[in-house]
């Protein structure tokens, strides 16, 4: 691993490279906060993909791409004379120090859960009168991740089930309400009841230490792999997927489950 001096030299090097690109590259010279935004979102998703793939090389590569965007926004801020990368780093350091009183102050915690609760309480003290408990959750987050974050924040200030087993009563309640809407053919409430059931399951996952977005993506990949196996098998018989009977699909599905597990 690199020494602290080498890390600082590497950081200085990328700043110099970005200065050159911003000065001489026609594309880089034209970029604005707005033009970079969509690419930034894409880079974050690519980093997420690398993390799910557990590929250290890809994680390092994608972290570099995300870092480039952080530096780029800071460079634009510097050109507008409103902030620079030093301001970004110092604001972050100040915030982290303030939010870790058990390290930099006289607070005492004994577990990661207690740190999370303390973190939310400290954040609440920072907020001005116009901000609420959940205002820090980006409105544009994907719905599943947003559900996880808002429930997590509410739980951190005490709005949660007494035990994780209690959540299953809520899941059962929402399931019954959904089933009632289905039986009554109540189209107006059907979407809402599905949402309530999803939200209850997100809370259940959280209480059992599972990130629901990761869990669903794992199932997505599993489903895609099994469908791919069936398609491959169909091609060996010069058939399309749709040419298979349901019984044939089901046999190959179970075969895929067994072989892909191995």
Structure description:
By secondary structure, this protein is an all-alpha fold. Helix content is 75%, strand content 0%. The chain has 12 helices and no strands. α1 packs across α4, α3 runs antiparallel to α4 and α11 packs across α12. The mean pLDDT is 92.
Summarize the structure.
The protein is mainly α and 262 residues long. The protein has helices spanning 4-24, 26-30, 33-53, 56-79, 85-98, 101-104, 112-126, 143-156, 167-183, 187-207, 212-236, 246-261. Helices cover 75% and strands 0% of the residues.
Percentage of residues in strands: under 5%
- Going by helix content, strand content and strand pairing, the class is mainly alpha
Q: Kindly report how far apart the N and C termini lie.
A: 36 Å
Instruction: Classify the oligomer.
Output: single chain
Number of H- or I-type helical stretches: 12
Q: What characterizes the major β-sheet?
A: none
Based on Cα principal axes, name the global outline. Answer: extended
Keywords:
0% strand, 262 residues, mainly alpha, single chain
